[in-house]
Amino acid sequence: MFQDLYAEALYTIVHKLGCSASHKKLISYVQQAFAMDDSRHKRLLFRATEEKPPLILLNVILLEARNLIAKDINGFSDPFSMLGVIPGKTASARTTTNNSKNNSPDLDANEIEYSMSIPSSPRCDKPRFGGSFRRTAFTKRQKVTKIEEIPAKYIKASSVQKKTLNPKWNERFQFTVDDANIDEFHMDIWDLDDEERSVVDAVASLNQVMDLKGLTRYFKQVAQSARVGSDDCVDDFLGCVNIKIKDIPSTGLERWFPLEKRSERSKVSGEVKLKLWLSTREEPKRDDDDDLTDVEQHIKLIQQFSLYEMKQSADAASSFYGQLCDAAEIILEQHALQSDLTPLHKAFCAWSAYSAMTNIGISYSYLYDILTNLVLHWEPLVLDKTEENMMADSFVLFEQRCLTAIAEHRVRFPPRNHKAVDLLSDLLRCYKLMLECNPYKACISATRSFNASIKTALESCAEEFFTASMKESKNDDPCCELAQLLQHIVVACSKSASYNQVLSSVSDIDYAQVTHGVFNRMLKEYLCVKLMDDSPSGLKATMNRASAKEDGEIVPFLNVLKIHLALNEFSQYQTSKQKTSFSFDNWNSLFDRAISKWVNQILVRGFARADFSCHLDTDIVRNDKMKFSTSHHDICHMIEQITNTWERMRVSDPKLRLTLTEKVVQNICKLAEFYVDKIFAILASEGFQGELQLFVPKGILARFCTVINNAEKVRRSLLFYDRLNMDESSVNGQNKNQEKRKGKTKIEQQIDTCTTYISNQIETAIDQLSKRFATLLDKHLTHFAWSPETTPAEVALKPMTEVVDNELLKLHRMLLHKNFVRVLISQFNVMLPLIMKCLDEEQGLNKNPLQSDPKFCARLAEGTAILTEFYHACGKGISGETLRNLPLYQELLKKLELHRTPTEMLIGQYYRNLHEQQLYATSCDYGILNVRAYYNVNSETLVVDVIGAKQVIPLDSNGLSDPFVVIELVPRLTFSDSPTFKTRIINKTLSPTFDETFEFHISTRDYGFGMIHFIVMDHDFLRSNDFAGEAFLQLNDVPGYGPAAGTTLKQFNLILIHPQNKGSSIISLLERRKNDARAQEFLRSLNTVY
User: Fold this and answer.
1) Do residues 424 and 409 make contact, with C-beta atoms less than 8 angstroms apart?
2) Which residue of 58, 295, 296, 997 lies most exposed, with the fewest beta carbons within 10 A?
3) Could you tell me which residue ranges the C2 domain spans (predicted)?
């Protein structure tokens, strides 16, 4: 069979049609593709050359012409065409040559190959040209076209197209070719001038000529002989086309051909469109034992060439998409041409060939394209019964392989392998197209829908998987067996999403619903059987013992928990219609007891594991140089494992779940705090404790970074509140919302307290490291503060920033970003008090009587800005929001602002602060003062009426007071010439009534900011008067004085206050301005005794 197929391929090459690659190249390729040795190749090649060659036919379709030359006086032509094949040499000469070359069996293979390179048709008695052509007859009276068939052997004529330069024929002709290598196709186009005599009559007369020599001249004679006796009218020549048969490719040719001249005197223009292709009329008979049909041979050739190309490319079969070389394509095309295979036959052969190669991994995507091509070319009744049966067999084989692959999809198409999932998708698309296409329905009598086939295959697959899982999970302990079985099912269900996505793209089948339905049914049957066993070793008794309240072994109750978790997870994969309760008897209470035992074990086993992890702690080597150790991985994994397990658990009693949730969170927080305390204690034991020296050994510094990084990682692992499913912890009853909120609040507080504790531990260690720089930084800041003004601030700060930068550079590589920012904040907080200290020292040395040295303050402000930007690092360091929330930083900015403020403005700000305190007072702890005031613009007089006071505080032993009021204008620096007034003393009362009026002569043009200051005092005879309270009234609020106050007399009820900022930064600053007379005078006025 293999040698017969090889001989068929050689025969196809030897009798190749059309222009293509050389015979030697094609024969060499076939020998390599079939791996044929030279001796058998030579024998089979001789056998192929001895067989009878096929009968070659040239098919021509004359489509149209354009831009022909006009020969008639009306500006048009009446074009018609004559076509024929011109023999290259006589048949007798050709026969002699062939016989002389083929009768010697001892010829070399190359000689045989050369001698047969020119295919030829055997001489026969049949006419050289078959078929018929259109004959046109005209009469003088009636110019009507009459079409009849007239036989012709050598030349055929087309119909005449009247009055046009762009004729359209679309007529088909067929010619027999004696020798495809030397014969030539010739066509003339003429303009019809005489309608009395038909050109086709001359064509018929010419075909009586037996001698084929000089046939070319008869194309002209045909036209001339048709005109004899017609007033010597001769048709006009419009152009000709000559095409060598050997130049026509095997795939055919269709294009525009330019019209050629017959001689130099010919006037020709335009072109003609032809479609030409070669074919064979009948299959030659060969005496051999080959019982393969042409279709089967073509299929085998496709497979043989494809396997060879796959082997040559060394790629997987799945990457093959029909990439055959040119030689293989030519041979297959020649074989199809010589076997008279239609496009449908070729599409069917490709499908049959490649669909049988799925066992070697051929791409289903490529098969889909091939099948689409088959559907596109499908025509009923073109294939015979045998060929339809062959196609049916290919469909059945492919369907069996598809269903087998679907049944094994969990192994063959794992969902994590994206290429495998795509392969499954292509398989389903191809299988669906096959079931729904017309060729399949025509060949297969009993057909099923795609959805039904897939659903049946999936159900069978699920049943086989469940049965295999039962065998694999077999165990003497029924709890362990059930837990393992459920684990297999859950793992299978977890892959449903990927498969469901593939199926949903080609069908309406819900993969999860089909497979889970089978699992659900079989699991229920399994549990019913197991729970019927009432023996001590049965499932029911084993679960009761494992979840008993008494402490026992860990493994049994862990198996109960595994069953609980697996059942919960399996139920999540079920749809609402499939939901089935597996809570047999008292399973919920059994699970609740097992969960309680697990919660109680968390802390004990967690502490032991954390202690063991710290004991085995080793540094982790990382490419980025960041410092970590193995212990933090263990603790974070343990917290994640506890959280994940609790997230999957379902406690049937809501109140119990809330209680257990609080306990789980408490245990996790204690575990985290235990670990953090443990690693910081180990760090202290290694030398990181107390007041550190300026130089810290490299090993200690690396260990410090490791510890705080580990602690930060553990802190981050505590952000699990959203995973606690607190909504499921609600309890029934009237107080359920209150209990739920209380439980949530308690849990949030536990987590916040723990994370804050860990952050404080980290920041304390970082502060301990940063404070060792305090002395050095103080030295550098002092140098900067008192450096010459000509030295730029950046240059003066450079020694300090270099020291800090070197330290930060070492830490930056080893720390998490969060911890590195903590280091920046800590160092910045160390610097801020030192800068404020420089400010205080400057004030004591400043000799300017009015304010601080503005240049000194500006320099410190510039240095502060430089350091702020240094630690901000363009947003990569301390954030702007963090800087705004740093108390020391804000205090420094205020201090710098105050130090640059003149004394007069500071005093004004002091009174403004007191006035704000009065305005925003929320209670009248010291009483209320009632006054009236207005300003007479004409007399420039400020009139103040002190009406009285209420609820004055008692300052005498009798529980009463002897109040009086002192009235003055402040600031005194502004109103230095204004007098100070006092009301009379009202004895023994807490609600005195004064009704006294006082006048101040002031001008609105002379003063800016000002207030009326009311001081309530308690009069004592033997001791100094006591301060009872004070109040302020802004001059701008007095009618007539302020532009927005109006002119009507107005009463004011002023709340009495006691100053809260006696030790404020303004007072402290003014106290340090000892050389400032105004500051000292103001301070003395504050201590004035009235």
Assistant:
1) yes
2) 997
3) 38-226, 925-1048
Greatest distance between any 2 Cα atoms in the chain: 170
Say if 56-88+147-281 and 903-1089 have the same CATH topology: yes
CA dihedral 846→852→855→858, nearest 10 degrees, is 130
Strands (E), 55-179: 56-66, 79-86, 132-136, 147-151, 155-157, 168-177
What DSSP string runs through 608-623?
A: HHHHHHHHT--BPP-T
Query: How remote is the C-alpha of 502 from its chain's centroid?
Result: 19
SS3 970: strand
**CB-side neighbour CA atoms (13 Å) of 972:** 15
pLDDT in tens, 188-198: 998 887 665 55
Measured in degrees and rounded to the nearest 5, phi and psi for residue 186 equal -130, 140
Those residues whose C-beta lies under 8 Å from the C-beta of residue 526, and which sit 6 or more positions away, are: 470, 485
Nearest to 286 by CA among 94, 37, 10: 10
Query: Per-residue pLDDT tens for 801-838?
Result: 898 999 899 899 999 999 999 999 999 999 999 988 88
CATH number for the domain formed by residue range(s) 56-88+147-281: 2.60.40.150
Predicted pLDDT at 10 = 83
- What distance in Å separates the CA atoms of residue 568 and residue 575, rounded to the nearest whole number? 13
Q: What pLDDT sits at residue 737?
A: 67
CA Rg value for the chain = 55
Q: Residue ranges per domain, the chain?
A: 56-88+147-281, 472-580, 597-727, 760-843+850-900, 903-1089
* Spatial separation of the C-alpha atoms in residues 941 and 657, rounded to whole Å: 79
Spatial distance between the Cα atoms of 525 and 582, rounded to a whole number of angstroms:
11
Place of tokens 């078929």: 131
**What's the CATH number of domain 903-1089, 2.60.40.150, 2.30.30.40, 2.130.10.10, 3.30.750.24?**
2.60.40.150
Cis before 971 (ω within 30): yes
What residues contact residue 868 under an 8 Å CB cut-off, 6+ apart?
883, 889
Q: CA 352, CA 296: separation in Å to the nearest integer?
A: 9
Half-sphere exposure of 486 (CA within 13 A, CB side): 23
The Cα 335–Cα 332 span in angstroms is: 5
Of 15, 207, 222, 218, the closest CA to residue 130 belongs to 207
Measured in degrees and rounded to the nearest 5, phi and psi for residue 766 equal -65, -40
Q: What are 193's two structure tokens? A: 């001038």
* Top-level class of domain 760-843+850-900: mainly alpha
Res. 1045 pLDDT band, cuts 50 70 90:
low
Buried b (16+ CB within 10 A) or exposed e, 926-962: bbbbbbbbbbeeeeeebbbbbbbbeebbebeeeeebb
- Going by C-alpha positions, the residue among 139, 195, 194, 189 that lies closest to residue 164 is 189
Question: What are 23's two structure tokens?
Answer: 């015979």
Between strands 981-982 and 993-1001, the pairing is unpaired
Q: What is the value of pTM for the model shown?
A: 0.61
Q: State phi, psi for 1041 to the nearest 5 degrees.
A: -95, -55
Listed in order, strand segments (DSSP E) in 727-783 are: none
- 409/499 Cα distance (integer angstroms): 9
> In the 8-state DSSP scheme, what is residue 536?
T
Whether the bond between 54 and the residue before it is cis, its omega within 30 degrees of 0, is no
In whole angstroms, what is the distance from residue 425 CA to residue 437 CA?
18
How far is the C-alpha of 833 from the C-alpha of 779, rounded, in Å?
13
Q: Report the alpha-carbon distance of residue 510 to residue 745 in Å, rounded.
A: 43
Structure tokens at 60: 């021509």
Residue of higher predicted confidence among 601 and 115: 601
Q: Is 549 helix (H, G, I), strand (E, B) or coil?
A: coil
Contact residues for 991 (Cβ-Cβ < 8 A; gap 6+)? 948, 949, 950, 951, 952
Architecture, CATH, for domain 597-727: Orthogonal Bundle (1.10)
